[in-house]
Design a protein that fits this description.
Pnp Oxidase, Chain A; about 25% strand; about 475 residues; 2 domains; 12 helices; five-stranded mixed β-sheet
């Protein structure tokens, strides 16, 4: 059964023993980060800070910071279940006859059941602040010492394509400048940035609405790497098994989740930018200060006693790692549909999801590993992957140690690496040019004579199955 809202999820977390209430007063300036970072690194619970200095509202953080909680948030026992469900609905089929077309109808009908539902009233309209909207009462945190100020770190940013009217919801941090203006951290590769550029061509302000606090499926959907012009709220409805209730904003022509905690309405002017940052980012380094668009708040609507959700990012593991791993497992079946040779994939936490990818493949022909490398670099946001390591099908890519062992044993550095140039994530600080640089692919598979390896390739050391079973049967006899 779908969570109605964020507080519904909080109730379930507390009932399961996954939530810790902090009842003493804490400072949003760095103190909350230090507490949460220690808890995150220890794989601890979600935290609900009930008394945040300078604000009457409680603050929720680390809500998704474990495998158990991310599965609970998306209401599955295993994240792979979602990927299989996606394939059932959108798996490409080419009906050649009437029966083929009829077989498609149940899938189309099922998808139609998740279309967002427009409502006239919702909890997020309990208080409407049009005259003097202000961020000052919210417990917005400053995360790290060199940050340029406080940041809204878990915003759901709604825009609409100025040309097609198609909505988009993404998660982009917001540097708070004062009570009514923030930065809008739209990387050039993001959909929100594309809408911003289109509004600039039209010489029009871009309406923006920001939801703070929604049910878990809606929050996750804002982070999902969905195709262009695919409505994230439709995807959220699919995840939660029920339509997302949407309500019209007061001062901009946008729809937002009616069950949200807080909505910030406003606009971005294409002719205005301002220094945004620095910000302690998920890379574990500060992203440097740069010019970004400015968001102006024209109205705030909220619940009477809203719950403020936030997160921190930094050196892994942290809460965002589990959102990223959710994406890995959910979208793996789709990747395997495009590349059937892929057996499994691991985006290790240390690679912060766009630096390192380990893939096991069913190798079928010479150069197969290189084919997969280039296919990965040509797939959506995986174009940013700085290092791809390809291993054979039987290798457990979820075991980083095993992958490193294969890397050390199976690679000839002159023969088995491929260096290419192309787009990089905007947060990459190592490349000489911003957003562009070198990426490496490493073929750590067993090499064949047809790939130029004419020497004998030795077998892995593996005990015979007969002896393994025999020792297992006598294990207690040995005194263990």
């Amino acid at each position: 059964m779908a969570y109605k809202d964020l507080r519904d999820f909080v109730r379930v977390l507390e009932k399961r023993g996954f939530l810790k209430r902090i009842t003493v007063e804490v400072d949003p300036d760095l103190e909350i980060t230090e507490i949460t970072d220690r808890i995150s690194k220890a794989e601890g619970p979600a935290l609900l800070f009930e008394k945040v200095k300078g604000s009457p509202y409680p603050l929720l953080i680390n809500a998704f910071g474990s495998w158990e909680r991310i599965c609970l948030a998306l209401e599955v026992d295993s994240l792979e279940e979602i990927g299989r469900q996606i394939l059932e609905i959108i798996e490409p089929e080419i009906p050649t006859n009437l029966m083929g077309k009829l077989k498609q109808l149940p899938k189309l009908k099922k998808l139609a059941n998740f279309i967002p539902k427009i409502v006239k009233n919702g909890p997020v309209k309990e208080v409407v602040e049009k005259d003097n909207p202000s961020l000052d009462s919210l417990p917005i945190i400053k995360c790290w010492p060199q940050d340029g100020g406080p940041f809204i770190t878990l915003p759901l940013v709604f825009t609409r394509n100025p040309n097609t009217g198609t909505p988009n919801c993404g998660m982009y941090r917001m540097h708070v400048y004062d009570e009514t203006t923030t930065g809008m951290h739209w990387h050039i590769h993001k959909h929100g940035s594309r809408h911003f550029r289109e509004s600039g061509r039209k010489k029009e302000r871009l309406p923006v609405a920001v939801a703070l606090g929604a049910d878990p499926a809606v929050i996750y959907s804002a982070t999902a790497p969905l195709p262009d012009d695919f409505d994230e709220m439709l995807f959220a409805g699919f995840l939660r098994g029920a339509p997302v209730e949407m309500i019209r904003c007061e001062t901009v022509d946008l729809m937002v989740p009616a069950q949200a905690e807080i909505i910030l309405e406003g606009y971005v002017d294409p002719d205005e930018s301002r220094i945004e940052g620095p910000f302690g980012d998920h890379t574990g380094y500060y992203s440097l200060a740069e010019e970004y668009p400015v968001f102006h708040i024209t109205c705030i609507t909220r619940r009477r006693e809203p719950l403020y959700p936030t997160t921190i990012v930094g050196k892994p593991p942290m809460e965002d790692c589990f959102l990223g791993k959710a994406t890995e497992r959910i979208f793996l079946p789709l990747l395997k549909k495009q590349m059937p040779e892929v057996v499994d994939m691991n985006l290790p936490l240390e690679g912060i999801f766009h630096n390192i990818a380990f893939l096991a493949i069913d190798k079928r022909y010479p150069g197969h590993a290189r084919k997969v490398m280039h296919a990965i670099w040509g797939t959506g946001q995986m174009m940013f992957t700085k290092m791809i390591v390809i291993v054979d099908a039987h290798v457990n890519v979820q075991d980083n140690g095993e992958v490193l062992w294969r890397l050390g044993n199976n690679v000839d550095w002159k023969r088995d690496i491929e260096v290419v140039e192309g787009p990089l994530d905007a947060l990459d600080h190592s490349s000489p040019l911003s957003k562009y640089g070198a990426k490496i692919g490493i073929d750590a598979t067993k090499k064949w004579p047809s790939e130029g390896h004419l020497r004998e390739w030795p077998d892995d050391i593996v005990m015979s199955e007969e002896i393994r079973q025999f020792v297992t049967s006598r294990w207690k006899d040995y005194g263990f």
